[in-house]
Amino acid sequence: MSERRKKRSFKLICYALSAILVIGFAFVNLAFAEQERVEAGYIWGNSPYEQVSDWYRVLVKASDYYALDRGNKVINLNPNMIVDAQIRDLNYMLSQQVDGILMAPTSASGLAATINEIVARGIPVATYDADADTPKVLVNIRVSNTKIGELAAEEMIKAIKDDGTRLQGKVLLISGSTTNIAAIERRDGALSILKKYPGIEPVVYMIEGWSQADSKKTVVNAVSAWGTPLGMVACNSYVGIGAIEGLKSANAAVPRGQKGHVYVGVVDVEKPMKEFMHQGLCDVGIDQPQLFYPTLAQYFLQEFIEKGDEAIPPVGVTVTSDPDKPDGPQSDGTWNIYLRGNEHEGVNIYQYPTWAPAPVIENMGHRWLQVRPTAVLPENCEDLPIWSNVVEKWLR
Question: Backbone dihedral region of 346: left (phi > 0), alpha (psi from -120 to 50 degrees) or beta?
């Protein structure tokens, strides 16, 4: 063999050995990557509606802590309420090989096709706080705005009855924009309760943009025209704060227990509303148990992956949350789910499963776990893990 051919053969052998080494390292790296993935547990993609407001920031943090307790990880991306941005984020999550996705759709129709594509690739999707118009959603977790309105009115009526006050007079029902679905549903829910009492005369106000200033002005004008009302139901925190400030400006803000008290039920218990409760000016607040939205979504995603669709409560059952019962179907026809987790930064949300009982109904072709709104009273407003309490420990 010539010297030239020997050199050429030697080069070919070196190239072959190099290729073998490269392939070997690739397999080793892949094996280590897969081992790291298994050790890390599941990887979820979380796409909330936004991540700017404290309401959503604590929701995301509750989600992260729940995953941490189980050895899982969450990729959180903020679409900032933009449909195209959310679609982009979901595609990125797929590129990161997530095992499941939990999300608050920015559009019921605009996300349907993307969700269908994700599920077709074998990735389950659970929605929360909002929903998507597709039967491919595994389960949706949120409250009913109609039920929120009903509960605000019911609890206000209960306060009146507890004090032995006559159910007679005007009740100002203050909600949001006439084009806002949540404002309409909450108004209609409250109105359905108030109309049950012949002595109550509901007076409805729809405040554009949930304006606090306009709500205050509306109440001042109402008191000036008709005198002090029997009660008020405010369908969100902004109009609620404005309404009570309006009572103050009209010299009609009287603490509970004193003659002339205006009974007030509000939706959303922000810090100023808790202060009104302590002052005796707000009798009840209704909050969403939104810290359980992403935690329940993760629970369902993992149950589905490990046990299949039969591990998800079907339409028609009521889901309870009893720590003394096993998870799953019960002999009385209900379905029990009790989430467990550790205390984080002084908060353990699992001590108060206020989201249950919750019926499972059908909506847009899939399950909707209609979680229960939380009734917040002056005596428990500092103890319940409502978002305004959690904010003080998790974000401040």
Answer: left
